């Protein structure tokens, strides 16, 4: 099984169509998914519509507060694509609420990294069972 890590700005419709499953990872900006991730969905949504039904996906959000809106936005897009969630969204809250903490580099703890690894392993195991 091949795994590709693509920045949202570098991914296009062909990448979406070629993938067997997806992990959508984004920061939350201003209580919404990041602009580059929104741009990715804008550029790929209709090109992949009705061609990727049933494929598995997971969501990772890094947020300064709750991250729920960004996760909901991705879930709505995934529902339109008729994707199948393999896990509840993982939201990592950095509690960055001041200009200094928002702009500072973020360090994701080992427990949150392990949660992300588990989601990746779940997705991979499900795909391995298909082939």
How far the N terminus sits from the C terminus, by CA atoms, comes to 9 Å
Give me the strand/helix succession. Answer: HEEHEHEEHH
- Look at the helices and sheets and give the structural class: alpha/beta
Shape: globular
Beta strand %: 15-25%
Relevant terms:
single chain; 131 residues; alpha/beta; 5-stranded mixed β-sheet; 5 helices; globular
Overall description:
By secondary structure, the protein is α/β, with parallel strands linked by helices. It has helices spanning 13-18, 35-48, 68-81, 99-103, 110-130; strands at 22-29, 32-33, 56-63, 84-85, 90-93. Strands 1, 2, 3, 4 and 5 form a 5-stranded mixed β-sheet that branches.
Entry summary:
The protein is an alpha/beta fold. 46% of the residues lie in helices and 18% in strands. The protein is built from five helices and five strands.
SSE layout and pairings?
Blueprint: H1 13-18, E1 22-29, E2 32-33, H2 35-48, E3 56-63, H3 68-81, E4 84-85, E5 90-93, H4 99-103, H5 110-130
Parallel strand pairs: 1-3, 3-4, 3-5
Antiparallel strand pairs: 1-2
């Amino acid at each position: 099984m091949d795994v590709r890590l693509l920045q949202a700005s570098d991914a296009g419709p062909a990448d979406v169509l070629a993938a067997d499953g997806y992990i959508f990872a984004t920061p939350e900006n201003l209580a919404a998914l990041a602009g580059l991730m929104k741009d990715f969905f804008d550029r790929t949504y209709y090109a992949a519509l009705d061609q990727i039904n049933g494929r598995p996906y997971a969501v990772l959000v890094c947020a300064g507060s709750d991250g729920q809106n960004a996760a909901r936005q991705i879930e709505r897009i995934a529902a339109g694509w008729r994707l199948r969630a393999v896990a509840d969204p993982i939201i990592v809250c950095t509690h960055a609420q001041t200009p200094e903490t928002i702009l500072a580099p973020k360090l994701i703890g080992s427990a949150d990294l392990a949660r992300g690894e588990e989601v990746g392993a779940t997705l991979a195991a499900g795909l391995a069972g298909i082939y």
